[in-house]
Amino acid sequence: MASPSQSSSSSQALSVGNVVSAGFRLYGANAKQYLTIALYGTLWLLLPFVAAIAVVILFAVVQNYYATLGLIIPALIVLFLYTLARYLANSALIARLAFGELTNQPELLKDARRFVQSRQWSFLGASFLMGLIYLVVMVAFYLVLAIVVVGLIASLGGFQLLQNPSPETLAANAGTIGILVLLGLGLFLVFIAFLLWFAARFVSVELPLAVEPNSSATRTIGRIWSLTKGSGWRIALILFVTGLVTLPIQLLLQIVVGIADVAIRAAGVSSESAIYTALSLLITYAVSFALSIVVLPLWQIIKAVIYYDLRSRREGLGLQLRDRGAQS
Predict the structure, then answer these.
(1) Could you give the dihedral angle defined by the CA atoms of residues 28, 32, 34 and 40, in that order, rounded to the nearest 10 degrees?
(2) What sign does the dihedral 26-31-33-35 (CA atoms) show?
(3) Is the pTM for the entire model greater than 0.85?
(4) pLDDT tens across 110-122, in order?
(5) What pLDDT does 31 receive?
(6) Is the dihedral angle over the CA atoms 267, 271, 277, 281 positive or is it negative?
(7) DSSP calls for 154-219
(8) By Cβ atoms counted within 10 A, which residue in 1, 50, 81, 301 is the most buried?
(9) Which among 124, 104, 41 is positioned nearest to 328, based on CA atoms?
(10) Residue from 292, 253, 247 nearest 261 by CA
(11) Residue 272, H or E segment
């Protein structure tokens, strides 16, 4: 596949449309390989839930299981962490292969898989650190939001309205109530916009770890934060457009779920029976499973394109590769 830098200079950012279209072109050119990796990774993630269901069924039959909980629960946790690490490594494998195509340096699947699997615990560590970062940011934002809301309510006399919420009082203070509602809505929108911007800054957090030889779980976070400086809103727009593009796939799968539900009812299965509940859950999970397999490669490729674009503009990646090719 031709590199996006061949149609633009290394200092000019790819447009939103260019990033999304490049992602779809690369997906179409390597769909079989990417879907196979996505299937393999998703199966790993499915394994702990299958094990948990098996344990529940076993307990329902055996009944006397309390003495073994101290062993089974830690075993399930370890299994979940291991399979999550394998899932993250396979997701990063798609991004690494896509980045190799973008840089015109395609890599053999076995070599790329060996590299990412050697760092699977680093991917898990980076994911854990990002979870902590998001938790801290969310808690801090909610504290600030609560302080601002309480201050606004106090300054506009909202507490007096809460103490005497009679219809006459509410009608007499309709303007104040309207201001409070608008301020609350504005703060909510600011919160959503902030989350989109913050998520965009870390959207390709696994790429440095999947591509760069000297990266680690902590370095990859700082690396992507540095690369995305000044590009947060543009990346957020790319993610928004990509989400819109995937909506038809999600709607199609929801239609499949609806048709299957109608078919179950037509077969005479009561909506209040355990069989109906089991079949509905099975179909819903199967559809979600299929959706994740189809959508995962697209998102990983989009991340790779974003990472390639950032490095091309900030570090002249495209120029370095072309100069290396000319010297060869």
Answers:
(1) 160
(2) positive
(3) no
(4) 999 999 999 999 9
(5) 93
(6) positive
(7) HHTTHHHHHHS--HHHHHHTHHHHHHHHHHHHHHHHHHHHHHHHHHHHTTTTHHHHHH-TT--HHH
(8) 301
(9) 104
(10) 253
(11) none
Classify 279 as helix, strand or coil.
helix
For the chain, residues with pLDDT lower than 70 are: 1-13, 60, 62-67, 152-177, 270-271, 317-328
| Of 1, 4, 29, the residue nearest 17 (C-alpha) | 4
Distance CA 5, CA 9 (A): 6
* Domain map (residue ranges) of the chain: 4-319
Q: How many CA atoms lie within 13 A of 156 on its CB side?
A: 21
- Asked if residues 8 and 316 have their Cβ atoms less than 8 Å apart, the reply is no
Is residue 81 within 8 A of residue 124, CB to CB? The reply is: yes
Say which residue the tokens 């979870």 belong to.
131
For residue 256, count CB atoms less than 10 angstroms from its CB and return exposed for 0-12, middle for 13-18, buried for 19 or more: middle
Distance CA 158, CA 183 (A): 13
4-36 residue pLDDT tens = 544 444 456 678 889 999 999 999 999 999 999
Residue 154 corresponds to which tokens in the numbers above?
A: 């106090």
- Give the DSSP letter of residue 5: G
CB 173 within 8 A of CB 158: no
Token pair listed for 9? 């200079």
| Cβ contact 94:300 at 8 Å | yes
The H or E element that residue 252 is part of is: helix 232-266
